[in-house]
UniProtKB/TrEMBL annotation:
Biological role stated in the UniProt entry: Essential for recycling GMP and indirectly, cGMP.
Protein name: Guanylate kinase
Lineage: Bacteria, Bacillati, Bacillota, Bacilli, Lactobacillales
UniProt keyword annotation of Cell inner membrane present: no
Catalysed conversion reaction: GMP + ATP = GDP + ADP
GO MF term (any one): kinase activity
Organism field: Loigolactobacillus jiayinensis
Length: 191
């Protein structure tokens, strides 16, 4: 039986975490663990697909491995959700802020494969967020947050552990992901 592994995808807003998780689902059939948030949905985000969208009252009725406050909203992930993803597949991915990524490495140890996404010029992220359809006030609020600033840097706790993916160019990042999947013996399903 394959060992159960969790690809923890982390990095600042706009660096491509969701894009990477969608790529792993589409081409490697790796399901993403859906987390909970009190942030309002963006255009095209569906409840139960992008996140479980919660009110502050409903958020605190769930059982979390960890939860964080990020740019004024709560985000949390449950052990039940990971167990459900692993029931479908030996591998799963989850998209977390760097604080959550560190907690996962410390809690699940070798089962976690952290991927840290970055870009050489963080200023380029603003245009990506606008193109994604984020509202201007939400972009300003996000980039002004201490969490955004923090997540631009690889945390000390992940320095020897994380695969760093510089996502300036998507085809280069994709190649790096394909090589990583090969190393874990995970075959590409479609091209
Ligand atoms: N620690 C933790 N972080 C989460 C969780 N769910 C989402 N996040 C992170 O919260 C941050 C904000 O997410 P979001 O508002 O969707 O912004 P995005 O990074 O621009 O897509 C991102 O770094 C997400 O990876 C969670 O359950 N726990
Ligand atoms: N290498 C890239 N070059 C240009 N745009 C990109 C690249 N990778 C992702 N994007 C786009 O940037 C936006 C933010 O990516 P996303 O995956 O939503 O980031 P995150 O989940 O980290 O906030 C999306 O519209 C996505 O399509």
């Amino acid at each position: 039986m394959l060992p159960q592994r969790l690809f923890v995808i982390t990095g600042a807003t706009g660096t491509g975490k969701t894009t990477v998780s969608q790529y792993l689902t589409k081409y490697y059939e790796i399901p993403r663990v859906i987390t909970h948030t009190t942030r309002p949905p963006r255009p095209n985000e569906q409840n139960g697909v992008a996140y479980y969208f919660e009110t502050e009252a409903s958020f605190f009725t769930k059982h979390y491995i960890e939860y964080v406050k990020y740019a004024d909203y709560y985000y949390g992930s449950s052990r039940e959700a990971i167990t459900a993803a692993w029931a479908k597949c030996a591998y799963a991915s989850i998209v977390l802020d760097t604080k959550g990524a560190v907690t996962y490495v410390q809690t699940l140890g070798a089962q976690v494969v952290p991927l840290f996404l970055t870009v050489q010029q963080p200023a380029a992220l603003l245009a990506r967020l606008a193109k994604r359809g984020d509202q201007r006030e939400m972009i300003s609020q996000r980039v002004a947050s201490a969490e955004y600033e923090r997540d631009l840097q690889l945390p000390l706790e992940l320095i020897d552990q994380a695969q760093v993916i510089v996502n300036d160019d998507w085809s280069t990042a994709k190649n790096q992901l394909d090589q990583l999947m090969q190393r874990y013996g995970i075959t590409k399903k479609t091209d």
